[in-house]
Amino acid sequence: MAKSRLHELSARGQSVWIDYLSRDMLEQGELKRMMEEDAVVGVTSNPTIFQKAISHGNAYDEQLKELLPHEDDPKEIFLQLAVRDVEAALDLLERVHEDNAEDGYVSLEVDPTLAHDTQGTYDEAIRFHSWIDRPNLYVKIPATKEGLPAIEDCIAAGRSINVTLIFSLQRYREVVEAYLRGVERLVESGGDASTVRSVASFFVSRVDTEADKRLEAIGSDEALALRGKLAIANAKLAYEHYLEAFSGPRWEALEAKGALPQRCLWASTSTKNPEYRDVVYVEELIGPHTVDTMPEETIEAFQDHGEVRGDTVCEGVAEAHELLEQLAAVGVDYDDVTETLEREGVQKFADSFRELLEGVRAKRGELVKA
Hints:
By secondary structure, the chain is α/β, with parallel strands linked by helices. The chain has a single domain, classed as Alpha-Beta Barrel (TIM Barrel), CATH 3.20.20. The protein has helices at residues 5-11, 23-27, 30-37, 47-55, 61-67, 74-99, 118-131, 147-156, 169-188, 205-218, 221-224, 230-245, 248-255, 280-283, 296-305, 317-330, 334-369, and strands at residues 14-18, 40-43, 105-109, 137-142, 161-166, 198-203, 263-267, 290-294. Helix 7 links the parallel strand 3 and strand 4. Helix 4 (47-55) runs parallel beside helix 17 and helix 10 (205-218) crosses helix 17 (334-369).
């Protein structure tokens, strides 16, 4: 029998990752415990997560004191702090990666203020991979229009990339195409396709938050009946495209060279609306060769009462297509929903990054005075 509900989920071919990282959880053995008890085989991080970790408590004070005499750029100070955490997590997950090369990853995100700067994003991603020269590092690049060429170029250079902030099906198709072209270029240049990996991080719950707001503003019975449905349908349609894209002659030629599919990763899986089941975005998106990255409260909730019913991500796909038509019929513009979410997502991460740097400055000031 599976040790826990999350081990049961893992047995169905879905990797369990967590979406947070801190010095405390590393030093207190929390990540190691979660690997054993919660089937955790990967870690993602973002500026908001690091901002919370660094600004609260004193876990980073000792390293900050070491850095102060020779570094005053808050971004470089932050990166030194973050890299130490990432490397410690990579060490813990190294055995996982050796056993299964698709897991055991830790993600570090490029500066989100570079989200619309192709060259700046590429340069920083390459820098991170050079700095942390580990086979189980993912560098996160947002799936903006400007991010797509950087993603392709990084893959072509043999660098593993976690493509983040995907909301729309059209953008997801473009992300997959960037990955495929990157792998093709890598192979054409004589590179080893088996050494590069990628996940496409599709954000889930935020889609319902935005769509529901619009449906409630419309207020008709038909509109209100569609609340809480778009996020899951959107992800199921993404998985449908994944199955199509990573099959057929084009993919088979790359697969013969050692290439692996770019797995779908379900992010933003906590439930924002308290009226919805708190594990709905996990239960409804179970499927093979996928990743679900969860916050702490979702991990705990699923372990307590989550249900593993089968490959739910493959169910109700026809209804998902119909839902898009139903939303258009009541006046919800899907493209505007997803464009709004991407724009706000980039802005939120950029704001968090600026707040993080202000927090580093403040911490630095406190320690200098001390």
